[in-house]
Amino acid sequence: MQHQRIALVGFMASGKSTVGKSLANHLQRPFIDLDKHIESSTGKTIPDIFSSLGEEAFRQLERNGLTNVVRGDESIVLATGGGVVTQAANRDVLKREWTCIYLRARPETIRRRLQQDGVVRPLLAVDNQTEAIRSLMGLRETWYNEVADFTVDVDSLEIPAVVSQVIDWLND
Ligand SMILES: Nc1ncnc2c1ncn2[C@@H]1O[C@H](COP(=O)(O)OP(=O)(O)O)[C@@H](O)[C@H]1O
Ligand SMILES: O=C(O)C1=C[C@@H](OP(=O)(O)O)[C@@H](O)[C@H](O)C1
Ligand SMILES: [Mg+2]
């Protein structure tokens, strides 16, 4: 398998953190969640960073995190945050240095999963969540496609099925 650096990309709540962890287990590789990496390096939660420092500061931490998270030719699985593709510099790094797996989910799937999930996404903690999902997804979809080496439609797949599609593709 050639794919040393594997990154999961996709919209918030598409399953990057969950699938990434399981995929890393299957591949017996280290797993890093970029959001968790930022939280442990700053000692703040993601919502704290957004509320006390602002989104721009978070994007800076995210950019630094993406470039510093791996050294050399270490094999790794990385779960990115859904907004990583909003920065052109990140898209360049992802295209150049990472095999990117895009977990593609429809807005209804995102909404359903957000309701079941305890993790707060500051950009979706708004009055009209449906509209926020649609507009952000509209903005970002092209960027996910731009960096993707392989896309999985996750709407009707359970987590193990998503993982197994990715593994099949990696082994192809
Ligand atoms: N394929 C799936 N089927 C059902 N629930 C899922 C699936 N993938 C993820 N989830 C659930 O959706 C929520 C968001 O997943 P998460 O991995 O945190 O997404 P992301 O990191 O992309 O924001 C979690 O509660 C997770 O258990
Ligand atoms: O899409 C985004 O802009 C964000 C996604 C989140 O990660 P998940 O995609 O893992 O929810 C987290 O990085 C932050 O709340 C911002
Ligand atoms: Mg996540």
TrEMBL record:
Question: Which Pfam families does its entry note?
Answer: SKI
Broad class of enzyme this protein falls into: transferase
A molecular function (GO) term: kinase activity
Q: Which UniProt keywords apply?
A: Amino-acid biosynthesis, Aromatic amino acid biosynthesis, ATP-binding, Cytoplasm, Kinase, Magnesium, Metal-binding, Nucleotide-binding, Transferase
Q: In which pathway does it act?
A: Metabolic intermediate biosynthesis; chorismate biosynthesis; chorismate from D-erythrose 4-phosphate and phosphoenolpyruvate: step 5/7
UniProt cofactor(s): Mg(2+)
Under the heading CDD domains, the entry gives: SK
Provide the residue positions that the database annotates as binding ATP: A13, S14, G15, K16, S17, T18, R121
Listed binding positions for substrate are D35, R59, G82, R140
Catalytic reactions on record: shikimate + ATP = 3-phosphoshikimate + ADP + H(+)
Q: Which family does it belong to?
A: Belongs to the shikimate kinase family.
The protein depicted here goes by the name Shikimate kinase
Gene this chain is encoded by: aroK
